[in-house]
Amino acid sequence: MRLLALSAAFCIALALSVGLKIPGLVKISEGPSGGAPLEIDDVLAARSFQVSRYVPDNDLTWISGINDDCRLMVAAVAPQGWHRALVAQMAQQKQVFYVFDGQVYSEQPIVRTRAYHYWRKLARYFGLTPRERPVLAVLSTSSCQDVPLAELAALSAGGR
Predict the structure, then answer these.
(1) What top-level branch of life does the organism fall under (predicted)?
(2) Is the residue at 11 inside a domain?
(3) CA within 20 to 30 Å of 123's CA: 67, 77, 113, 133, which one?
């Protein structure tokens, strides 16, 4: 009798796990993807920056803002930290900031960003729709006195 119950439990677990692996059986919404949030344009324009988008040969879309001697570049980067080398390459002599979940960091907080990314992915498996919290890389020239980090941090806190 005990062996029968154990076998039944194993069969149920097997059926459930296979069901999750069959494409099309479970629809997972990935949410908005790619590119930088459009609100970045609005934040920079409100600070009198001339805004443009720059898409180099890599997979990042940079939003560039120029205001007198100040030049800013903002991009949504992978929460897993895959874009750190690209950001460092683009930075050269610029100041680098990472913005995530309403906080500003000098380096990407990979543990936090990965944990949220995978938690969000798991939540979508169960039909939940957690807020998107993009990880933003911000590059600024040293002549920038008033970088809108607080506004960008508010965007990354999932206000959209």
Answers:
(1) Bacteria
(2) no
(3) 77
pTM: 0.76
Report in angstroms the alpha-carbon separations of 139 from 19, 50, 79, 149, 154: 45, 16, 17, 11, 17
Q: Which residue, 93, 88, 102, 92, is CA-closest to 137?
A: 88
Structure tokens at 5: 């119950």
* Confidence bin at 18 (pLDDT 50/70/90): low
How many structural domains does the chain have? 1
Q: With CA atoms as reference, report the closest residue to 36 among 53, 24, 12, 56.
A: 53
Which residue range is the domain that position 73 belongs to? 28-156
Whether the Cβ atoms of residue 13 and residue 125 lie closer than 8 Å to each other:
no
- The pLDDT tens digits for 82-103 are 999 999 998 989 999 999 999 9
Is 4 within a domain?
no
Mean predicted lDDT score pLDDT of the chain: 85
87 neighbors 139 (Cβ within 8 angstroms): yes
Contact yes or no for 100/113 (Cβ under 8 A): yes
> Could you tell me which residue, 114 or 24, shows the higher pLDDT?
114
**Is 12 a member of any domain?**
no
Q: What are phi and psi of 10, to 5 degrees?
A: -65, -40
Token duo for residue 66: 């120029």
CB 153 within 8 A of CB 103: yes
